[in-house]
């Protein structure tokens, strides 16, 4: 059985934008849609698609509401999202360790 760390990478989490969303949501605990859009340099439509994928996988919760009269959307990492992010980071660290310990030619 092959146990190479790359085999355990989760395509839902590992995609660059979604990994960024999960990381920012982890740091902030609750993050506003506009902040994510700005930080990740995305269009609203593109960000919405990535959020839908993460929400469908149960990794985030999306809450819509108002701040005063302005509509807002907040994103929170779920416990499953926290676990998935930690697992992904662990596998990435394993990959990095393999490169750092590989003798140079």
Automatic annotation (TrEMBL):
Q: Which InterPro entries match?
A: WH-like_DNA-bd_sf, WH_DNA-bd_dom, WH_DNA-bd_sf
Q: Does the keyword DNA-binding apply?
A: yes
- Domain Winged helix DNA-binding, by residue range, is 17-96
- List keywords of the entry alphabetically: DNA-binding
Pfam annotation, one family: HTH_34
Record has DNA-binding as a keyword: yes
Q: Which GO terms describe its molecular function?
A: DNA binding
Q: This chain belongs to which protein, by name? A: Winged helix DNA-binding domain-containing protein
Q: Which organism is it from?
A: Paractinoplanes atraurantiacus
């Amino acid at each position: 059985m092959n146990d190479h760390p790359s085999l355990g990478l989760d395509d839902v989490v590992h995609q660059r934008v979604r990994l960024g969303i999960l990381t920012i949501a982890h740091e902030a605990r609750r993050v506003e849609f506009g902040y994510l859009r700005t930080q990740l340099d995305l269009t609203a439509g593109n960000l919405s698609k990535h959020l839908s994928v993460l929400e469908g996988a149960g990794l985030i919760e999306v809450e819509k509401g108002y701040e005063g009269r302005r509509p807002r959307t907040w994103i929170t990492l779920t416990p499953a999202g926290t676990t998935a992010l930690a697992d992904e980071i662990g596998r990435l660290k394993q990959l990095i360790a393999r490169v750092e310990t590989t003798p140079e030619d």
